[in-house]
Amino acid sequence: MIILHNLIMGYQGQGIGVPLDGRFASGSMTAIVGLNGSGKSTLLKTLAGLLSPIRGSLSFCNPGRPRIGYLPQQVDIDRQFPIKVYDVVAMGCWPIRGLLRRINLKQQVAIRQALTRVGLETLSYRAISTLSSGQFQRMLFARLLVQEAPLILLDEPFSGIDMPTFGLLMTVIAQLNRQGRTIIVVVHDNQLVARYFPQTLWLTPQSATWGPSEKVLASWPENYPTSLDPVAFSVCDHVPALV
């Protein structure tokens, strides 16, 4: 469980949005929605430990921060770095084996299984610069699978991907949640939220609404955009509910 108490987050002492009070239950699956600048990505970075709270507190039910699988927006990742798909996925072993230790046989099997699960088993030794947006995102999800983290934070994971990739990644997310992982995802479409996510945190610069998705979406203002990402909206119409 993650508990937020009067949490103010931001950069260089400058807070973003309103104080947050609430909790992410262990094994829950939550969508974070809101317009640009409302603090969605900032909250994920704070949960991941990349940013410190400006005020208030952030605590976990167990002592210390759990192992976290954090996937930032694709724009935050250098796709021209000279590295192969297999090596990126193998980075998921670092929290378990350390940076300098060799990958053992069990971990090699886990890497291969993760690549197969996301449909990239034939592209293991391709340079990441040659991947399409959908293939690149599949690779990052394979790395998440290898990490075996109990807490998974995803920042706009469906941006710029094709329909088959969306269906595959949403299936992976749902399966991880059924295994007891806590999943927190920044998304930009309320129909996607209603179909897949039991819990929603809706952020604006002036407010934070948190609870069951059905209730949060029912309070959506009539003049507020119902689909902030037309691609995600069209893809959602073709993929069955998984949760």
UniProtKB/TrEMBL annotation:
InterPro entries referenced in this protein's UniProt entry, alphabetically: AAA+_ATPase, ABC_transporter-like_ATP-bd, ABC_transporter-like_CS, Metal_Ion_Import_ABC, P-loop_NTPase
Keyword Cytoplasm: no
Electron transport is among the record's keywords: no
CDD domains: ABC_Metallic_Cations
A Pfam short name: ABC_tran
Domain ABC transporter residues, every copy: 2-230
Keyword terms: ATP-binding, Nucleotide-binding, Transport
MF GO annotations: ATP binding; ATP hydrolysis activity
PROSITE patterns hit by this protein: ABC_TRANSPORTER_1, ABC_TRANSPORTER_2
Family (UniProt): Belongs to the ABC transporter superfamily.
Protein name: ATPase component of Mn/Zn ABC-type transporter
Organism this protein belongs to: secondary endosymbiont of Ctenarytaina eucalypti
